[in-house]
From TrEMBL:
The keyword Ion transport does not apply. It is found in: Cell membrane. It comes from Phenylobacterium deserti. It is a multi-pass membrane protein. It comes from the Bacteria. Keywords: Cell membrane, Membrane, Transmembrane, Transmembrane helix. Residues 168-295 form the Type II secretion system protein GspF domain. Signal peptide: none annotated. InterPro entries: T2SS_GspF_dom. One of its GO terms (cellular component) is plasma membrane. This is Type II secretion system F family protein. The chain crosses the membrane at residues 6-26, 101-124, 130-149, 279-304. Its main location: membrane.
Length: 312
């Protein structure tokens, strides 16, 4: 009976966790679809319709659960910090913080019975044998979503770093051809929608904020917070200073693009220099023992055969 109850709780928590993850992903896609519509790009109608049908109901249930279980943890500075991390990960929904907290609780509920079921063959007895697996599963459930969130932020930061030099080159070509910065950004958003989607998304939000009436400096500073990238911060600082001083924007962007490419080249050289050191460990621990085994086992067998023949 107890095992059946655990299975039922596991199934319910698993369904809730799946609904929460789908809610965040669908809300993210819904935001991108609205952004593409605003900028005149095309979006996938089937996925957009699916997000429109499923996101409101699932998000409503999950956020209510997140608000109920996250009393005190989703207030003031803590909520603002979590909200900023979710924005950096690409989740722009107003209730993403509550939904993420609900996912953490659902993950804890999923892993608690799993940890208890895994510990049953170990033969743990007493209250400690019952509570310890539950505590381990609950802690893992609370920490794993944070780890996945940090990984997504790092992936988007790396995508922004890799795509930024190409974006700056396109801005240089557009500005030197006589276009304004806003027109260059609009072309960048359209051209990079498939090649560098993260770069296209960030500059699309920037363009939308400027068109909505925000000052260019404020919109650029908000893009720096969203991307959490040092390269974007340097680009924003250069653009703001260039506008304030009145220098040539095309020339400043060209110099900045050259610096980015030099930095990428130096990073590639550094990784190439580290490669022999990193290869030494698998060579010593894995490949050399196999080679020694292949070489010396036949010799040893031949030696044993010779010694046994001499003994006879």
């Amino acid at each position: 009976m107890a095992q059946l109850l655990l299975v039922v709780l596991l199934a319910l928590a698993g369904l809730t966790l799946a609904a929460g993850a789908a809610t965040l992903l669908l809300s993210d896609h819904g935001f991108n679809a609205r952004l593409n519509t605003r900028l005149g790009a095309t979006a996938a109608p089937s996925a957009q319709g699916l997000a429109g049908r499923l996101t409101p109901q699932a998000l409503h249930l999950l956020t209510r659960w997140g608000e109920a279980t996250g009393k005190g943890a989703l207030e003031d500075d803590r909520r603002a910090a979590l909200r900023l991390r979710l924005i950096q990960a690409g989740f722009y929904s107003d209730r993403a913080a509550e939904a993420f907290f609900g996912i953490r609780v659902a993950a804890a509920l999923v892993l608690m019975p799993i940890a208890l079921l895994v510990s049953l063959p170990l033969g743990l007895e007493g209250s400690l044998g019952f509570l310890a697996p539950l505590m381990v599963g609950a802690n893992l459930g609370f920490f794993v979503p944070n780890i996945l969130l940090d990984r997504r932020i790092a992936e988007r930061r790396e995508a922004m770093r890799l795509g930024l030099p190409d974006a700056v080159d396109l801005l240089v070509v557009s500005i030197e051809a006589g276009a304004t910065l806003s027109a260059g950004i609009q072309r960048l958003v359209r051209e990079f929608a498939e090649l560098h989607p993260v770069v296209s998304e960030q500059f699309g939000i920037l363009l939308t904020e400027i068109q909505a009436g925000a000052s260019r400096a404020d919109a650029l500073n908000r893009m720096t917070k969203r991307s959490a990238s040092e390269e974007v911060g340097s680009l924003v600082t250069m653009l703001i200073q260039s506008e304030a001083v009145g220098t040539s924007l095309g020339g400043a962007l060209r110099v900045f693009s050259d610096e980015l490419r030099k930095a990428r080249y130096l990073e590639a050289e550094r990784k190439a220099a580290e490669l022999p050191v990193k290869l030494a460990f698998p060579l010593v621990l894995l490949i050399f023992p196999c080679l020694l085994t292949v070489i010396f086992i036949p010799v040893g067998l031949q030696l044993l055969s010779t010694l046994s023949g001499m003994a006879n």
